[in-house]
Amino acid sequence: MYSTTSKNEVVIKLVGKLSLEFPEIDQLRVRAITEEVLYKYDILPQETALVASDIEEKIQIYLATKRLDGLSEKTLKNYNYNLIIFANHLRKPLSTINAMDLRMYLAVRGKNLKASSLNGQISILKSFFSWLHEEEYIPRNPASKLKQTKEPKRLRNPLSEEEIELLRQACDSDREKALLEFLYSTGCRLSEVVSIDTKDINWYEMSLKVIGKGDKQRKVYFSTKAKILLKNYLTSRKDANPALFVASKYPYKRLGGRSVEREIDKIAARANIEKSIYPHIFRHSFATHKLNSGMSLPVLQALMGHENPSTTQIYAQLSQENIKHEYRKIS
Description:
Blueprint: H1 4-21, H2 27-37, H3 55-68, H4 73-89, H5 99-109, H6 115-134, H7 161-169, H8 174-186, H9 190-193, E1 201-202, E2 207-211, E3 217-221, H10 224-236, H11 257-271, H12 279-292, H13 297-304, H14 309-315, H15 320-330
Helix pairs in contact: 1-2, 1-4, 3-4, 7-11, 8-10, 8-12, 13-14
Domain Core-binding (CB): 53-133
Keywords: DNA integration, DNA-binding
Pfam families: Phage_int_SAM_1, Phage_integrase
């Protein structure tokens, strides 16, 4: 009997195995090719395993629970993808998995990963096994002994105000001007920008509500300059798409994250700035410039949608001039 479930399972397992062997591969492309090759084939499961694994079953229950807890679909997909890779690597009952099994898996999985990416894998395993233990599926939690690896402190390198101005001058179209100014004046994440509809905007207040990480809503604001450029861009459009930013050619689809990255790449190439320019750098620059202009950390934290002020501090850097000025005030 033909089984779509079995075929999907084979595709996921194949992508997972290849990702372990070749970490740099384009996983979505490999999945698309595999699905195309298997399109006309029926796949049936063969129950020949000597050791039964209950990991896949528990993963689905875990994800269903986390969905009810309010985790975003993007986060759930990431959890599912990485836990399926783990399940394919370790074919044994959950109750028999120990800390050494997890360490050996992480040694293989993290071979070519950065410390931050490896810590992401550790966090997923700790969350999964903690849930298994709390729900009494396993007698003990083997992930409780896992420790996060030490990450090198990254010095954020925001754009200077001069670089922002050079990028503004390098914009050609109304859409480029509006997009760049909106990214910089709101400090929004790329995922937030691409999901915005025109109706979301309060033009009088120059504000809008966005849905951030964990499906949490917050209000952000934009500048008068951004308002004028957005109005010019929207007036120039000939489509009825509700999205704030759309493709320049028919059928005028909503701009996705990769399309926005390409737009920023084109602007940066014209500006000829010797620095990596990408959408998220405008969020860093927004935070740094607001902090240096005197905005309080709690207000900046609210605008950026951070639960923890320490996260905001990572994004924002005080200039040495401001540090010196504050020191002189009290000395």
